[in-house]
Amino acid sequence: MSRRKARRRSFILIDDGFPQHPAVMAAGPKASMLFLAAACWSASFRTDGHIPRVALRRLCAEADVVGAERLAERLLVAGLWSRSGEDYVMTARDLCRLPGSSKQRSALRRAWDAIAGRVRPVVLARDGYQCCACGATEGQLHVDHMVPIALGGGNELTNLQTLCRPCNLRKGANAWTG
Ligand SMILES: [Zn+2]
Question: Are 52 and 111 part of one and the same domain?
Answer without folding.
Answer: yes
